[in-house]
Amino acid sequence: MVTVQSILDSRCNTCHWKSPFNHASMVGVNATTGYCSGHSKLLVPGDLDSSCIWDQIDVGGTMRSWSGITSGEVDTIRQWILEGAKDN
Length: 88
Description:
This protein is mainly alpha-helical. The chain has helices at about 5-15, 25, 30-35, 50-55, 60-65, 70-80, and strands at about 35, 40.
């Protein structure tokens, strides 16, 4: 089963593992209190439009092309955010 953690580990953490955007900061309390691009919340559970991480991987997002993330992986993250971005 593909999990959000496995997607972040394989697609994001290869570059972001030492940055504020590592897996630990992308889930749970850290994600909901963290910011990216200076002003945007990294993650707002249940709200794609307010989640910077979504902007980065949605169609046309900067990390969409850099990471090689698949459409299926994007759909998994989309559903995870919409369902409240639980740390599981």
